[in-house]
Design a protein that fits this description.
Elements: H1 3-10, H2 16-27, E1 31-33, E2 38-43, E3 46-50, E4 56-63, E5 66-70, E6 75-76, E7 79-86, E8 89-92, E9 98-105, E10 113-116, E11 121-128, E12 135-138, E13 143-144, E14 148-151, E15 170-173, E16 178-179, E17 184-186, E18 190-191, E19 196-197, E20 202-203, E21 212-216, E22 219-224, H3 233-239
Parallel strand pairs: 1-4, 2-5, 4-7, 5-8, 6-9, 7-9, 8-10, 9-11, 10-12, 11-13, 11-14, 12-15, 13-16, 14-17, 15-18, 16-19, 17-20, 19-21
Antiparallel strand pairs: 2-3, 21-22
Helix pairs in contact: 1-2
Length: 241
Amino acid sequence: MNKLIIQIMASFIFNKQKRKEFRKKYNTLPKIKGYDNKIILVYKNNKKEVKTINNVDIRIHGNNNKVIFHTPLPNFVKSKIDLVGDNNLIELGSSPYTIELEISCKWRNHNRQIRIGNNFSSEKTSIFINEDNAILDIGDDCMFSNDIEIRTDGHAILDEKGNVVNNICEIMIGNHCWIGRRCLILKKAVLPDNSILGANSLLNKNHNEKNCIYAGNPAKKIKEKIKWLRENASIYNRESK
């Protein structure tokens, strides 16, 4: 529904709480154009097509696109999915945590796959994937801080013969990875399982050693043979004695 129409209709609702609920309901309706586009909710391996997900603003323009959510759903906050193109897949696993997430695929690209595993949490993450056949895979039990960006090039880089040299677009984040505040993750980046990416780091290449801390611009290994927990360090120290 057009936002202006929503505002006009809401102005006739005099109860403040009901007016707020009305705006929330209709502002989160997906704006879908094209054919065979689906928003799917998965519950115990049963799939159900739905029209809306609470607190996720969804727009799909194109054909044969799927956005899949696994239950139990996370606590979505100010989240948005903007998908333009054909034959694209976005899949988000179940989670007990809070997620603030923007997935922006606004350019008309095709055959993209974006998968986020179970038990994901994010204070604020923005994902910009705008290339054909691009793959973003984030494993299970990953913890993302705030102001994190994951993005592809978007624009073509040519060699002297006019051939595009930046076609390959894969980004892989392993299981149980902790991404610090204000990190930037670019195409061809790989972060192995059980790793930490330090705050303000740039991840733009393949790292293959697990249980490490990577940090810097560009990120490099600064510590190895580590593991991390979601628990606060001081509380963990007190309770582990």
